[in-house]
Amino acid sequence: METIGHILFWGFVQSLCVYNTSSDIVVSLPKWRVKGFLFTQMIMFPYWCFYSQFDAFKIVFPTFFTLDLITLNLPTYLFVHHIVCLIGHGIAYNYNVESFYYYANACAFLELGSGIYCMYDLKYGRIQFLLICMTISNLVAFVLAYYWYASENNIFIGCLSLFASLALISSRQITTIQQYYKN
Fold this sequence. Notes:
Elements: H1 2-18, E1 25-26, E2 29-30, H2 31-36, H3 38-50, H4 54-71, H5 76-95, H6 100-121, H7 127-150, H8 155-182
Antiparallel strand pairs: 1-2
């Protein structure tokens, strides 16, 4: 019952966040998506993961990505990113449940970094702040992903997950560094 309450609360507040926000494009997404989902990225995902409310996270995290796939015309890189995240979530949810903590918290740290990037895109922060926060987010997520990998009994699933994590984290860091030097 607590999980349903968390999900209903998330849905209500999330709808308030996107209500009456413009559809102007910020980088490659509508402003309502970039600004509106900061609540989910910066507050709800970390809260659910850091305080072990995994049942809500298990439902909302894939819902978050699925809604983007259904409602937005995503650029190719974001489309692929969302598909990889959904596959990763399915693997983590089904193969290594006892170590789900590491996976979920890695996701929370990655979403915090993504939220900081969205804030930068909305002109709420400076590039130096973005670079520092994204680097910390990526480093912590990598350590957690490694612990998740190290606890995996199926070597194929573990290696696949570690490879996907490294690819995702590396691309995020490279993109942030490129943005830093572009400014």
